[in-house]
Amino acid sequence: MLDTLFTKPPRWEWLIVWYFFLGGIAGGSYFLAALLDLWGDERDRSTARLGYYLAFIGVVLSGLLLTIDLNRPERFWHMLIMSERGWPVFKYWSPMSIGSWALLLFGGFASISAFAALAEEGTLRWSWPRAMRRGVAGKTLAILGGLCGFFVASYTGVLLTVTNRPMWTDTNLLGLLFLLSAASTAAACLLLLSHWWTTFAPTLQWLSWFDNHVLWLELLVLMSFMLWFGTVTDWRLNMGGLMLLLGVVLVGILTPLVLHARPGLLGKASPLVSAALVLCGGFVLRAGIVLSAQRL
Amino acid sequence: MAEPMGFYTDTTVCIGCKACEVACKEWNQLPATQGGANTLSGNSYDNTRQLDGMHWRHVKFIEQFTPDRAHGRWLMMSDVCKHCVQAGCLEVCPTGAIIRSEFDTVVIQADACNGCRACITACPFGVIEINPVSKTAQKCTLCYDRMQAGLEPACAKACPTDSIQFGTISDLRGRAQQRVQQLHDRGETRAYLYGADENILGGLNSFYLLVDEPEVYGLPRHPRLPTRRLTWSTAFAAVGAVVVGMLGLLGLRKRRMETVARSEM
């Protein structure tokens, strides 16, 4: 009998599934926006701004979801400050501890970038945030925020691994898988929203190219993840396994890859359908992994 | 630091009276479940069922019968937090609510816990749960308040057969070894100690004398720390981040090259 089957599930349910999904999109969007800002064209900046807005909305929602999910939400600050002594609490070996700090830090970066983007667009009249979109300050912000964004996108997978639940703790791939899914869903979200946003056509092509390649990587890692298990076999046959096979592999990865390769299949709707399916796949991936290991 | 203290539970003399459960509930003021209504498990004489936030002691009834019930035996074991020397719950707790006391026991501070539930799934023994009254994670404290006053924990005090013994770890290990030898001499060669040495999580400060496989008692054979995959899973994610970043740059470079090629045509 598996040693991990003696543990109890933590009852991390839909709020956590949504957090993993939205936190991934927030982190991935920021990373992509930072790439466009640092190495893209001047005309890519519109999509970069969209990325920062998405990151800001995503990180705010993430914080709310995490707080509501606590059994004592009014003590959310105990994640950062030791309640008795008032000192910061930071345990680098605890993904939840380091993730709380990363989320706070990322929230700061995403807020500054979103305000700076609003100022650049002219929606905000303040002049100081505009400086954060240019020069050394802008570059530094993009680099730090992008790294922090990817950390937020992937630590959630590592957090699941650093437990004693079967399936979560039986693999080293969850952090990597969530990171790839964050990159693909963020690109898909930007592609989808670009339909209603002024976007430079080559930016869309880049996003589409990027998403296509990340989906291949995601497929590779997801299949390795599913084949990793020599001992826990039954979950592949239960609802979780079915969700991953049908909802993620078939609907969320293979169908968008086919639509990328044959864009004529659905005409003009192809990119939109493809992006929507990638988003669905990203959500089902989180739901399948988070929920099924707790039903074992 | 005071000398490490703990429990040694000799399951061979447990009679399943549940005095320990009652004493624990009384001393720690743990409320009854479902308003005290008597709900039966339906598949066992064990109606406590499990350790959780309101049951810090649980006497397991392991009923081993042949299908015709002609032969059988009862194994009984008073289960509790193992107060591991290398405690998974303490490792992952992000708030610092879980501490190691001066008696080398593991204690959850209810006023610091925010109910994130990371410890629940980190514990390899399934000991911790949320107490629905305090809404924080709770488990046995090895009667920290009683120990500070020089008293033994309520469960050990109440145990009528001395199945639960309290003392310094070194003393308990000595007593347990003698008991195993005594049982072996009497022909019960299946007797062995679970968690009395450092092989299981650096040693369990609540260890057991068992006469069957650990799994029969609901105990993992090789419990492990949750952080055992931290380094590699982080490394995989970091490599993934570099690959994805390079992929993005490659795409932008490809686009630039195509633009240059088009402009030269």
Count of helical stretches of chain A:
9
Helix/strand/pairing class of chain A, anyone? mainly alpha
Strand content range of chain B: 15-25%
- Round the mean pLDDT of chain A to the nearest integer and report it: 92
What's the structural domain tally of chain B?
2
Strand order of the largest sheet of chain B: 8-1-10-9
| Named CATH topology of the largest domain in chain B | Alpha-Beta Plaits
The shape of chain A is: flat
- Helix and strand composition category of chain B: alpha+beta
The main β sheet of chain A shows up as: none
Q: Concise description?
A:
The complex is a heterodimer of chains A (296) and B (265). With 296 residues, chain A is mainly α. Chain A has nine helices and no strands.
Set out the fold topology.
The complex is a heterodimer of chains A (296) and B (265).
Chain A: H1 14-39, H2 45-69, H3 95-121, H4 135-161, H5 174-193, H6 201-228, H7 234-237, H8 239-261, H9 270-295
Chain B: E1 5-10, H1 19-28, E2 58-65, E3 72-79, H2 88-92, E4 98-100, E5 106-108, H3 118-122, E6 129-131, E7 136-138, H4 144-148, H5 154-158, E8 164-168, H6 169-185, E9 192-194, E10 206-210, H7 230-264
Describe this structure in words.
The complex is a heterodimer of chains A (296) and B (265). Helix content of chain A is 70%, strand content 0%. The model of chain A has no long low-confidence stretch (mean pLDDT 92). Chain A contains nine helices and no strands. Chain A has a single domain, classed as Formate dehydrogenase/DMSO reductase domain (Formate dehydrogenase/DMSO reductase fold), CATH 1.20.1630.10. By secondary structure, chain A is mostly helical. Chain B has 265 residues and is of the alpha+beta class. Chain B has two domains: 5-224, Alpha-Beta Plaits (2-Layer Sandwich), CATH 3.30.70; 227-264. The longest helix of chain B is centred in the last third of the chain and has 35 residues, at 230-264. Classes of the chains: A mainly alpha (296), B alpha+beta (265). At the A-B interface, helix 1, helix 3, helix 4, helix 5 and helix 6 of A face helix 2, helix 3 and helix 7 of B.
